Amino acid sequence: MSQAVFHFPKGFLWGTATASHQVEGNNTNNNWWAWEQRPGRILRGDKSGLACDWWGGRWREDLNRAADSGQNAHRLSIEWSRVQPTPDRWDEAAIDRYREIARGLTERGLLPLVTLHHFTDPLWVVEQGSWENPNIVNLFANYVRKTVEALKGYVTYWVTINEPNALAAYAYALGVFPPGKRDLGLALNVMVNLARAHAAAYQTIHKLQPEARVSIALNVRPFLATKSWSPLDRLAAGLANGAFNDLFPRALTSGEMRVSGWRRSIPEAKNTLDYLGLNYYTRESIAFVPQASQAYVRLSIPPGLETSPNDMIANDPDGFSEVLNWARAFKLPILITENGIEDAEDGLRPRYLIEHLHRLWRAVNENYPIKGYFHWTLVDNFEWERGWTQRFGLWELDVASQARRKRPSADLYAEICRENGISSEMVEKYAPGLVEKIFPG
Ligand code: BGC
């Protein structure tokens, strides 16, 4: 085999992504902390607790790990409940802390990408009905104004809301996130409020910082009909793709939210994406099952693919290519804001990483406007309703002792970041079985 390197363009962003509640620890003033105290909500009764202790100062050592391993960007989120613990109070000490972290990123040569909402709401917002109450639009815009004023000296790339599609689905249709509701009509209203809140945040940010680059991070998850010959499975797949994948980017480009026969005009949301932030993990199969407890459908991992230890995620690079192709039609710059796999033993992650980055490289070389990639995640962190049972980190975390241990994939990713490319030597070293597939001949 001849030696070869697949290089990415100069200036390509390489980072990892994290989120406040998953890494900070002691986020006692939000809806997730409250949810964790309720029996039966989190697997094994796990709690976020100290998480990765970033609020206690360990953000420094973890960001050193990121910078020392060749990354040049990092995505993290701000915790609304820290910035605004009650409706009438800004916590200036917390805001200073975030300023220090943002400065810490730039000092380490990590371009900050800051998410303003990653699944958690302050308790006082919950008391007002959170995303069910249209007034969330004003509340969110007010918090965004304060936060952007504080951080705009360091940050120009923003994500307003992480995965508004997953939030609406998990919290209001499937009931696995707080407030645990299962009501499709309500989920649609929530989606309207999410789109309107994004639009208000977009305008607020641009007023304060005209050069800002603003988007959402969309969870893209192509749905395939389990039985391709079944009209009902195909119908379910079409509806799921329309509601989950297409709805937000269409609404935020056209100003119209549409799924099946339902439509809502949201004119202020038109053209409110400066780039498209995409979180891709896996594709899913969907079957229409009248007796299923989850909205008449059953979801599963497509057959015939390697899967993560808990069968959550398939190693499905074809799905990634499909997503990139779909995304290109929006004619916006693209950032991969999350991609990764739960894999405590790091058995599959090296292959997953190489195969997905190879597809990314191919798309970049076909001139897709892809500007960067953020791996989920830097260090194992609190996985929402799955607690600590799933490990997505390049570094392993011992939650009790807070000790970190590097997984082989951390070295692989470091080599990729430093080279700004994937070499045949790397593939030979970390995933020899893939050499012929990635570097044939
Ligand atoms: C979320 C992350 C989460 C990851 C892995 C994404 O949908 O944005 O917060 O940790 O999936 O489950």
Bound molecules: beta-D-glucopyranose
- Which regions are unreliable across 5 or more consecutive residues at pLDDT < 50? none
Protein structure class: alpha/beta
Strand content: 15-25%
Percent of residues in helices comes to: 40-55%
CATH topology: TIM Barrel
State the name of the first-level CATH class.
Answer: Alpha Beta
The CATH fourth-level homologous superfamily: Glycosidases
How would a crystallographer describe the biggest sheet? 8 strands, parallel, barrel
Our measurement of the CA-to-CA distance between the termini, rounded to an integer number of angstroms, reads: 6 Å
What general form does the structure show?
globular
Number of helices: 15
* Number of separate domains: 1
Biggest sheet strand line-up: 2-3-4-5-6-10-13-14
What keywords describe this structure?
441 residues; binds beta-D-glucopyranose; 15 helices; 3-stranded mixed beta sheet; 8-stranded parallel beta barrel; alpha/beta; TIM Barrel
Question: How would you describe the overall organization of this protein?
Answer:
The protein is α/β, with parallel strands linked by helices. It has a single domain, classed as Glycosidases (TIM Barrel, Alpha-Beta Barrel), CATH 3.20.20. It contains 15 helices and 17 strands. The strands form five sheets. It has an eight-stranded parallel beta barrel, surrounded by seven helices. Strands 7-11-12 form a three-stranded mixed sheet, covered by helices on one side. Strand 15 (395-398) and strand 16 form a beta hairpin. Helix 7 (136-151) packs parallel to helix 9 (184-208), helix 8 crosses helix 10 and helix 11 (317-328) packs parallel to helix 12 (349-365). The radius of gyration is 21 Å and the shape is globular. It starts with a strand and ends with a helix. Beta-D-glucopyranose binds next to loops.
